[in-house]
Design brief:
Layout: H1 5-13, H2 15-22, H3 32-40, H4 46-56, E1 61-69, E2 73-78, E3 86-89, E4 102-105, E5 107-110, E6 113-116, E7 121-122
Antiparallel strand pairs: 1-2, 1-4, 2-3, 4-7, 5-6
Length: about 120
């Protein structure tokens, strides 16, 4: 993906944390998100709780950029699971992405719209 160093750093900086948070822990079959929501969810905003629940159920996949919509988003095709291309809201990424770029990411559906989780990794072949 043709990204500036700072954008790539911003996108990838939180990937290990997001992977850890998403991962299932051995203890009682729960995960970090379940533990957090149980202990502190009462003081977390509704939007943040929805985001965490959506993140918990998401899967990382490999996507190819099919179309770039400047200042709006990207159209991505899942190269692992197949299916129809999905349009995601990604204003910042739409300035640096190019058709044929491949990225590893999680697509989250919140409020009927698709977003990238924030942890986007460039995938070079």
């Amino acid at each position: 993906m043709r990204c500036s160093a700072s954008l790539t750093t911003r996108w990838s900086r939180h990937a290990p944390l997001r992977t850890f948070v998403r991962a299932r822990l051995l203890r009682e079959g729960g995960n970090v998100i379940d533990d957090y929501l149980e202990q502190r969810g009462w003081k977390t905003s509704i939007q943040a709780r929805d985001y965490l629940r959506t993140l918990r159920g998401s899967l990382m996949s490999l996507y190819e950029v099919v179309e770039v919509k400047p200042d709006r988003g990207l159209v991505l095709r899942d190269l692992v699971r197949g299916g129809q291309p999905v349009e995601v809201d990604e204003k910042l990424g739409s300035h640096s992405a190019a058709i044929w770029d491949r990225i590893a990411a999680r697509i989250l559906t919140i409020g009927g719209r698709q977003y990238l989780s924030g942890a986007v990794l460039s995938f070079e072949l």
